[in-house]
Write a structure and sequence with these properties.
The complex is a heterodimer of chains A (1032) and B (460). Chain A is an alpha/beta fold and 1032 residues long. Chain A has 33 helices and 42 strands. Chain A has four domains: 192 residues, Rossmann fold, CATH 3.40.50; 164 residues, Dimethylsulfoxide Reductase, domain 2, CATH 3.40.228; 140 residues, Barwin-like endoglucanases; 312 residues, 2-Layer Sandwich (Alpha-Beta Plaits), CATH 3.30.70.20. In chain A, strands 5-4-16-15-14-6-7 form a seven-stranded mixed β-sheet, with helices on both faces. By secondary structure, chain B is mainly alpha-helical. The chains are: A alpha/beta (1032), B mainly alpha (460).
Chain lengths: 1032, 460
């Protein structure tokens, strides 16, 4: 049957027919309307172009030329010629590294996409500093700062690194031969290898002296520690198991000694009913400014500086039994001292006192109290090496420079022309030196005054190693090839000391020889980013004359106002002032962005004539206060801060930068001008200036108005003794005159679909665990390409944050009194006056933080109202926002009871009106390629990081496994960034998951549950450790 | 048709001893004559305002909604306030021409043409706002259920905004058809009188070949009745559906079941006020006092008084229900309306809408031309504030106090509003010069029953 098959096209082919053959051979049977010999035809060759034809050709060619000249935008992208084997387009790579900028530090993971770092995440392998704060989360944007120094300069002229090094070496050698002193001024060096390199460098040039300088000094704590224990270090506290924490002016949850304490602190603050009865630590905070630590405390006592010292002194007397006489305190304060002492002594080994006062005596007395308590909370084996600067050394250096004793200055990690109180003098003296070198990423205040500027790479382009806590080592590795012609400080020192090896070689060598034990491999340490040696120290206290220190605490000066300077969560010491994310980050307490200000109590504000008021569009204004400290005068805007101690004012460092930053970022005033003698507290005089300041505040209403179902609260006693129904009832609605719980299907007008199939995402938010630190806000900003809108727009209440942390003050002494007051309103007249009163926060209010993002309601009000169905519900519980379908009616935002939807009022990218990172090519490198950049006119909001959850699902699918129980938590920016576990994300259909377990807790409630939106975000009732019966 | 007898106690609806011919002359006069100086002045001002408004719209569309004063909490303010205000004004026309036709109210004949013109022009203004308030107005056609190539994408039939699209487009269509049908015999009359060929051509076109045969008249009457029947439910439905924009939401102050009747009453209230505003001027300028008599104005004032009272009742019911509900958010929303930062808007609304129409109980006042004119303007100011109060004061302080803020209009907000007023008057002034502003064919039908000369003859 090998016969060739024949296919018929039709049955006609059966009968032989000539017509068919003809058709088959000749496709076009009829004559085609074309001239026979088209190119030889004379009629064409002789044809003329008549007027009409001419116009046709002209028209066509003009159109064609015009069209050809309209070129679309050209985006240059270079494909891989040889694809790197570790980089798969679309798949993120993570590298463990350590971030340290001289102020903040953490062991982190860096998420890179196609070789470009785009996000900072926490390193769970790190047991001490594994959580990045808001500033470190934002620091990634510094890598892509278009204002970076792109190569070394000498006297503002670009030079090559070779010339630069030769020039410095020549200078150093000549000064060495003349034996004229040169100073190496750096931020605290806590890198073991850097220390070695510096000492080698000093060996090579013995005329060099190394001085460490912290922009915000912790010298008194260091001095006290050195005096008492013979070791210059900061005490390390382990709050995990603390039962009672007393803090005197220490903002240990915010910015304190580079602290990373919130994770441990919160462990003791969550009332888990493990064996029937929950316990919590007791936290008493004595402070002047309202800090986030104070707002998390169970008892907060606002006191002026001198009263804080007296409080400490009396507390010490109470605990030590010391009988020396010191100035007495008011009866009320005595009660509080007794109350505090009682709590400390009830469980001495698990109680601790921490002190944030810039005062040697206070620090010594604090250490002494802790020693007397024999506390385990203050570590006996670990110390923090995060700060090492010495005020006296820096002061003597400044004097020597002034006198002309110093000939050269090499600076790294410092910006003294900004951070010194007499920075102008310093800038002048810099110019008199033979040479001054600044290692800097920016032409900042110091760099502009230095003869030599060495361009350094960003931390994400650098190598490094660190020991922030004794025995706890960590590594920094580059996550991207340096973007510019930069060189690390250590590499420069090595080359100036004529060493052939690089910093990287030195680190490896040092780690191999001195740090890693024989079983530990370099590669695995580099992979982990951290290495813990088991080395510990023993702190033995020297005997000191404590009574003399005690008496010093008693000597007080009551003239003028106490100015207490602090650093804001958003800005720290001001290094990142050019970071738009941080500028737009609202302060957790005042909720003001783009500014610093003095915080003043209502009492003092009225006395001095300082005001806050709102404009017709709600925007917050103030007049100015003039702060006078000796000859220094500063004009500062004012925020009336509930909880500010009378007679004190607060002012944040980090603002008022002038050089090396964009105009938009030149916000606030420079508090370092008042940082005389490196003391954060100063006596100042205040007066009001009649001039209006405009604030950009994202929360214009401060109190909760007695709305107890927004923040549910209870006390530990009630929580332990009463039923859930008493302190966390589910709201009821009436149906046919029967009270029905609002979550019952009886009162649900929608038919529910089966949500038990597949994943169903929920986010749990524990109000006990949230300290208000704001790391999640920045993480969300970075992950989701949220635009920065600038001060003017924030002022118009158009901030774009997908996740906000609402802060409420109580109007009475506490929130429960607010509710009581509201419920006892009788009659219309009273309601008018009482609601008016409830708009005003109390003088020392209770504070609560509540993170709010899209609640992903199962019955979402936004979804039903969108005419084009751009807002729709997902099977996994998310409420989706389809940007490219949105026509921008804003109805969804109006109908959202949580007001979490954000509208693109303008085009926020590629728009010179919004000249932030999304307006330049370098800054745009930080954008997450998995999240679309929204155009103007569309609504946007939290997506539950769907790009993250989908990638987890895909990964599990590719690997042929089920998703692990808590795998989703790290895929979502906010919950991954949360250091305290306040935010926990996951799949409630997985009964093993943490979020499922949390959902079963009695403390669970939903925000505005009675509206019937059935959110997929749930909150945990805040439990406060307050004993109501005891009056204090 | 009705008989030529009308009770002697009824006041004549046409005064000044008119004959049929005189009616034709009077109605055709503004069209055939030249515009006077005042017309040109008012027209120029309106045109300038209109152009200014167009500029503001272009600025908004090219730059972004951010040029308005809106913010994250208050997502609608002047835009939707103006929308509802204009839609409300557009209510009187259909009510007058359809409902009053069904009820055989003959006094409507003097005013229905202009009232309907006003309806159409104000619905046009209203229609602008849903378009330009969109973030991406160039995609506005996505709200129409048209087959598309986006896959299975379809509009969301749950959304009250979509219902708005249908309600308003239906209303505009029916009103336009109704208006034009009524215009046919009148256009034909102008056509027949026209001497200039161009004018004749235009009016021939727009009168759709009306010949005045008995069959034409029969069909005219039939279609008028059918359309009146169709338009009557629309009078109720349009503003009911507009009120659903708010009533179906979950925001305290919006989520209110009383809204549909309350909005309809408010719409008729503001619509009649606007008719009064326009006609009091027009009867003077176009010498139409014989057709739009004091009695017409008095009757409209009575409608204003009644609907004003209904609206006042609704305001008080809202307050009562807020208290009676026991819902704290609801209670606070209304307390905040009356005593919060926008108290002045609330009390402006209360004064203008509830108190001022009550003065119409006095015969002396409701028959005073000047007073009627003033009140008609006051009522529309009040009705603008009513929508502002509902929209802005409900939004600016809703559930979570952390989001509370304020709203303040930008120059663009104001510019666009003024622009639509300009646009409205441009249209209306052009209409007054080119259209027969009195339904003369209909007025002629009542001349013998309600014309003062005929009445006098009968009385003798």
């Amino acid at each position: 049957m090998n016969q060739e098959k024949k296919y018929w096209k039709s049955e006609i082919e059966l009968k032989p027919n000539s017509a068919i053959d003809q058709l088959r051979n000749n496709e076009f049977t009829e004559k085609l309307p074309v001239d026979e010999n088209i190119f030889t035809n004379d009629s064409i060759n002789n044809a003329q172009t008549d007027r009409r034809d001419f116009l046709k050709y002209l028209g066509f060619s003009t159109t064609a030329a015009v069209l050809a000249s309209c070129e679309g935008p050209v985006h240059k992208s270079v494909p891989y010629v040889v694809q790197p084997d570790r980089i798969i387009p679309g798949i993120a790579n993570y590298y463990a590294t350590t971030l340290y900028d001289g102020y903040d530090f953490a062991n982190v993971l860096v998420k890179t996409r196609e070789g470009r770092p785009i996000k900072i995440e926490n390193n769970k392998l790190s047991s001490y500093n594994g959580y990045a704060n808001a500033r470190l989360n934002a620091s990634i944007l510094g890598l892509y700062d278009s204002g970076r120094v792109q190569g070394p300069t000498i006297n503002q002229q670009d030079v090559s690194w070779e010339n630069f090094s030769n020039n410095i070496k020549a200078q150093l050698s000549s000064l060495k031969s003349l034996n004229q002193p040169v100073v190496l001024l750096t931020s605290t060096i806590n890198s073991p290898t850097s220390k070695k390199i510096i000492s080698e460098f000093i060996n090579k040039y013995p005329n060099i002296e190394h001085i460490e300088y912290d922009s915000i000094s912790e010298s008194s704590t260091l001095d006290a520690h050195e005096l008492m224990y013979g070791l210059r270090a900061l005490p390390y506290y382990d709050f995990q198991n603390a039962k009672c924490i007393v803090s005197i002016g220490a903002d240990f949850l915010g910015d304190w000694q580079g602290s990373n304490y919130d994770h441990d602190y919160v462990k003791g603050r969550i009332p888990n009913k493990n064996n029937g009865k929950a316990s919590m630590s007791k936290h008493i905070q004595i402070e002047s400014n309202m800090s986030i630590t104070g707002s998390n405390a169970d008892l907060r006592v606002p006191l002026s500086l001198s009263d804080q010292k007296l409080f400490l002194a009396h507390l010490y007397k109470k605990i030590s039994g010391d009988s020396s006489s010191i100035q007495s305190i008011s009866g009320d304060l005595v009660k509080k001292v007794n109350y505090t002492a009682e709590h400390l002594l009830s469980n001495p080994s698990q109680s601790v006192v921490v002190c944030g006062l810039d005062d040697l005596s206070a620090q010594i007395i604090t250490n002494r109290i802790n020693d007397l308590l024999n506390t385990n909370v203050k570590s006996k084996t670990k110390v923090s090496l995060a700060r090492n600067g010495s005020d006296s050394k820096v002061n003597s250096l400044l004097n020597r420079i002034k006198k002309g004793d110093i000939k050269g200055l090499i600076m790294s990690g410092v910006n003294p022309c900004y951070t010194l109180s007499n920075s102008n003098d310093f800038a002048e003296t810099l110019k008199k030196l033979n040479f001054s070198v600044t290692f800097s990423m920016k032409i900042d205040e110091t760099a502009i005054n230095s003869s030599h500027v060495a361009a350094i790479p960003h931390q994400l382009e650098s190598w490094g190693d660190f020991e922030f806590i004794n025995g706890e080592y960590s590594l920094t590795q580059p996550t991207i090839k340096p973007l510019f012609d930069t060189k690390q400080f250590e590499d420069c020192l090595l080359s100036w000391s004529e060493s052939q090896s690089s910093f990287y070689d030195k680190i490896r060598e040092n780690w191999k020889n001195n740090i890693l034990d024989s079983s530990q491999k370099w590669n695995s340490s580099l992979h982990d980013g951290v290495y813990s040696s088991n080395s510990t120290i023993n702190l033995n206290s020297n005997n000191l004359q404590y009574s003399t220190y005690l008496s010093k605490l008693g000597s007080i000066n009551n003239d003028g106002y106490d100015l207490i300077m602090y650093s804001k969560i958003g800005m720290g010491d001001g290094q990142q002032a050019n970071n738009p994310w941080l500028q737009e980050f609202p302060d957790p307490l005042t909720r003001v962005s783009w500014d610093n200000y003095i915080t003043v109590s209502k009492f003092d504000a009225e006395k001095i004539g300082l005001k806050n008021y709102n404009e017709s569009n709600g925007a917050l204004n103030s007049n100015y206060a003039k702060i006078k400290l000796n000859e220094t005068e500063l004009k500062v805007p004012v925020i009336i801060q509930p909880g500010q101690a009378k007679g004190t004012v607060g002012l944040a460092f980090g603002y008022g930068r002038e050089i090396g930053i964009k105009d938009e970022m030149k916000t606030g005033v420079n508090a370092f001008k008042l940082y005389k003698d490196f003391s954060k507290s100063q006596k100042v005089t205040l007066s009001s200036v009649f001039e209006i300041h405009e604030f950009a505040c994202v929360q214009l209403h401060n109190t909760l108005m007695g709305r107890g179902d927004i923040i549910k609260e209870t006390t530990l006693d009630i929580y332990n003794s009463k039923d859930k129904e008493y302190w966390n009832p589910i709201p009821k609605v009436s149906k046919n005159h029967i009270e029905t719980p609002v979550n019952s299907s009886e009162v649900d007008m929608w038919t529910e679909f089966d949500r038990s199939i597949g994943h169903h995402f929920n986010l749990s938010i524990d109000l006990n665990a949230c300290t208000g630190c704001g790391a999640c806000v920045i993480a969300c900003h970075a992950e989701n390409n949220v635009p920065v809108v600038g001060k003017e727009e924030v002022r118009k209440s158009r901030d774009m944050h997908w996740l906000r942390i609402d802060r409420y003050y109580s109007s009475e002494d506490n929130f429960s009194s607010d509710i009581e007051k509201k419920e006892n309103i009788s009659g219309l007249g009273e309601s008018l006056s009482i609601f008016g009163e409830m708009e005003q926060p109390s003088d020392n209010p209770q504070v609560v933080f509540q993170p709010v993002m899209c609640q992903h309601c199962n019955h979402a009000p936004c979804e039903t109202v969108c005419p084009v169905a751009a807002s729709a519900h997902g099977r996994q519980g998310q409420n989706h926002m389809t940007y490219n379908r949105c026509v921008g009616t804003r109805y969804c935002a109006n109908n959202c009871p949580y007001k979490v939807r954000r509208f693109n009022w303008f085009l926020y990218n590629n728009n010179n009106e919004f000249d932030f990172h999304m307006n330049d090519d370098l800054g745009k490198m930080v954008l997450n390629p998995d999240v679309v950049v929204r155009s103007r006119g569309v609504m946007e909001k939290c997506s539950f990081c769907i790009q993250g959850t989908q990638s987890v699902i895909l990964k599990a699918k590719n690997e042929g496994r089920e998703v692990e129980k808590n795998e989703f938590n790290d895929a979502v920016a906010c919950s991954a960034a949360c250091s305290t576990g306040a935010l926990q994300f996951g799949d409630i259909n997985n009964k093993e998951s943490e979020v499922y377990k949390r959902k079963q807790d009695d403390r669970v409630y939903h925000l505005l549950e009675y509206v019937g939106t059935k959110p997929n975000v749930f909150y945990h009732t805040k439990v406060r450790n307050i004993d109501k019966n005891k009056s204090i | 048709m009705a008989s030529h007898y009308e009770a002697p106690i009824r006041k004549p609806l046409v005064t000044g001893n008119k004959t049929y011919h005189q009616i034709s002359v009077d109605v055709a006069k503004p069209i055939e004559g030249n515009a006077n100086k005042q017309w040109w002045i008012v027209f120029s001002i309106s045109l300038v305002l209109f152009i200014w408004g167009v500029g503001c719209m272009i600025y908004t569309i090219s730059t972004g909604i951010g040029v308005w004063g809106l913010n994250k909490t208050v997502g609608w303010a002047w835009d939707i306030t103006n929308f509802v205000w204009w839609i409300g004004i557009g209510h009187a026309g259909t009510l007058i021409s359809a409902v009053l036709l069904l009820f055989r109210q003959k006094w409507r004949m003097g005013i229905n043409r202009s009232a309907e013109a006003m309806t159409i022009f104000s619905v046009m203004q209203a229609g602008l706002f849903p378009l330009i308030h969109m973030g991406r107005p160039w995609l506005a056609y996505w709200v129409l259920p048209i087959p598309n190539q986006f896959g299975s994408l379809w509009v969301n039939f749950n959304s009250p905004l979509l219902w708005d699209v249908f309600a308003i487009s239906t209303y505009l269509t029916v009103s336009l058809v109704f208006w034009w049908t009524g215009l046919l015999p009148d256009f034909a009359m102008i056509r027949d009188r026209a001497v200039k060929p161009f004018q004749k051509k235009i009016y021939s076109l727009v009168s759709f070949g009306w010949s005045g045969r008995a069959k034409d008249w029969q069909r005219f009457e039939e279609i008028s009745l059918v359309l009146a029947g169709l338009a009557t439910p629309l009078v109720l439905s349009v503003h009911t559906i507009v009120s659903f924009d708010f009533a179906t939401s979950v925001i305290p102050g919006w989520h209110t079941t009383i809204f549909p009747p309350y909005f309809v009453a408010g719409a008729i209230f503001s619509g009649f006020a606007m008719v009064n505003t326009l006609l009091i001027v027009m009867r003077k300028v176009c010498n139409l006092e014989d057709y739009i008599t004091l009695q017409h104005i008095e009757l409209m004032n009575i409608v204003i008084m009644i609907t004003g009272s209904i609206v006042g009742c609704a305001y008080i019911t809202e307050l009562f229900i807020a208290w009676y509900s026991g819902v704290e958010y609801e209670q606070y929303a209304f307390l905040n309306r009356a005593t919060g930062p926008y108290w002045w808007a609330y009390w402006a609304m209360m004064t203008c809408n509830v108190f001022s129409p009550q003065l119409m109980w006095f015969k002396k006042l409701r028959t005073s031309i000047i007073f009627s004119f003033v009140i008609s303007i006051v009522v529309n100011i009040g009705m603008w504030f009513e929508r502002f109060v509902i929209i802005v004061t409900s939004l600016h302080r809703d559930y979570l106090p952390s989001s509370w803020t304020m709203f303040s209009p930008s120059f663009v907000d104001i510019g666009i509003f003024i622009g639509t007023i300009g646009f409205f008057f441009v249209l209306f002034l052009l209409y007054a010069r080119t259209f027969p502003v009195i339904a003369q064919a209909e007025v002629k039908t009542i001349l013998k029953s309600s014309g003062d000369n005929y009445k006098k003859l009968r009385d003798k």
